[in-house]
Amino acid sequence: MNETVRKCVIIGSGPAGLTSAIYTARANMSPLVIAGLIPGGQLMLTTTVENFPGFPEGVDGPELMMKMREQSEKFGTEFVDEDVSSVDVSSYPYRVIVGDKEFLTYTIIIATGASAKWLDIPSEERFKGHGVSSCATCDGAFFKGKNVIVAGGGDVAMEDGIFLTKFANKVTVVHRRDRLRASKVLEERAFKNEKMNFIWNSVIDEILGDNKVRSVKLKNVLTGVVTEIPCDGVFIAIGHKPNTEIFHDKIDLDEKGYIKVHENVKTSREGIFACGDVTDPRYRQAITAAGSGCMAALMVEHYLEEKEL
Ligand code: NAP
Q1: 166 and 275 fall within a common domain
Q2: What confidence score (pLDDT) does residue 129 get?
Q3: 54 and 199 in a common domain
Q4: I need a surface site. Which of 17, 42, 104, 132 has the fewest CB within 10 A?
Q5: Is 139 a catalytic residue?
């Protein structure tokens, strides 16, 4: 059977994947984006994005992603809104397997991003969807007039906390240290917000309730003292982990599972490039992801030219 070999398959549809799609499509490479069952990446879970250049009034995350997708489609990008099952790199061209479909390709751009981390305590699992959430913008409205806990001390915890004060009576941030990791601007906004308060040097030990959350047990990490405080919901905002499960043993990953890159976007395997949060434990911004998506696309173009493919 004479299978078509594609020039470029992009895995992931956040700012990195879609920027690489715009660039490769404009360069006539007819890219195929395997967008995932939940396309659009983490910006789909945010409200207003205030720091993406070009939008002085801010822009809604989902709207921004929709526009990037439209822009890539305008230049001929194809989409498959499913998850990649596996990638076969044992022969060249490479093979990207999506359910019962297979796509042969000369190059792959991996832009699978990162996902929210969980506390990994049994009661968290029990109450997921019943008062425990990792997405304030998705679930905040369910907590009108209630008391909620936010776990974490980074930018996302502050943004989530501030967002939740639109609905909740009281938002209590529980952080494992005595100072925040969040940027000063968000810290100041959070400290000024009268509905927000902070419990320092503490972690959630257990979430209690019957069919919904009623309280949390907090452990002070310095004294070991455990206290129970009533609440109706728990939002987990403790960072992210890279989505690289399907690439183990295929390309080099670092000890935390991020894809190792050299020259910004080259992976350990020829013809496979990576961009965005899946390579980046440090900056993790929509704009840096988009920038590295552009780099990956330019490298693909260069690679195909060099190989005369
Ligand atoms: P983050 O900056 O890594 O912060 C994670 C927070 O969770 C830290 O405070 C960390 O504590 C805490 N934490 C981690 N594991 C924990 C555990 N097992 N138990 C309890 N606490 C735990 O992650 P993020 O807030 O998700 O932000 C991700 C990136 O996006 C960052 O680079 C951030 O700057 C960026 N971001 C930027 C904006 C913006 O500019 N507007 C908005 C959102 C996100 P420690 O502090 O002790 O490590």
Answers
A1: no
A2: 82
A3: no
A4: 104
A5: yes
